[in-house]
């Protein structure tokens, strides 16, 4: 058998190692949670950007369609004006 002093010292060493391992595990867990929180924040920002960009795209498509309609109307009026001018010049 080992003397009591050696047994106590070995037990204390094992306890220190166990505490050190536990501290490392806690540190790793805290770091993973911090990283996960950062990732979740980034995902929220990406979703917000996507939503904003989708809304801007919808608005741009609406404006493009409206400009296309106006362009057709201006074109129609120009054709009418040119035909009127030709008719007047042909007299």
Question: TL;DR of this structure?
Answer:
Residues 5-77 form a coiled coil. The protein has 91 residues and is mainly alpha-helical.
Folded structure, characterized:
This protein is an all-alpha fold. The mean pLDDT is 93. It contains 1 helix and no strands.
Keywords:
91 residues; mainly alpha; 96% helix
Chain-wise SSE layout:
Elements: H1 4-90
- Name the beta content range: under 5%
- Unreliably modeled segments: none
Task: Kindly provide the radius of gyration, computed on alpha-carbon positions and rounded to a whole number of angstroms.
Answer: 39 Å
Shape: rod-shaped
Tell me the total number of β-strands: 0
Structural class: mainly alpha
Q: H/E element string? A: H
Mean pLDDT over all positions: 93
N-C termini distance: 131 Å
Percent in helix: over 70%
Number of helices: 1
């Amino acid at each position: 058998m080992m003397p009591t002093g050696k047994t106590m010292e070995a037990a204390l060493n094992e306890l220190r190692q166990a505490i050190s391992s536990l501290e490392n595990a806690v540190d790793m867990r805290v770091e993973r949670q911090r990283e996960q929180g950062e990732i979740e924040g980034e995902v929220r920002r990406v979703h917000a950007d996507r939503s904003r960009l989708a809304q801007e795209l919808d608005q741009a498509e609406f404006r493009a369609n409206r400009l296309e309609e106006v362009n057709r109307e201006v074109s129609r009026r120009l054709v009418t004006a040119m035909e009127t001018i030709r008719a007047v010049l042909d007299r």
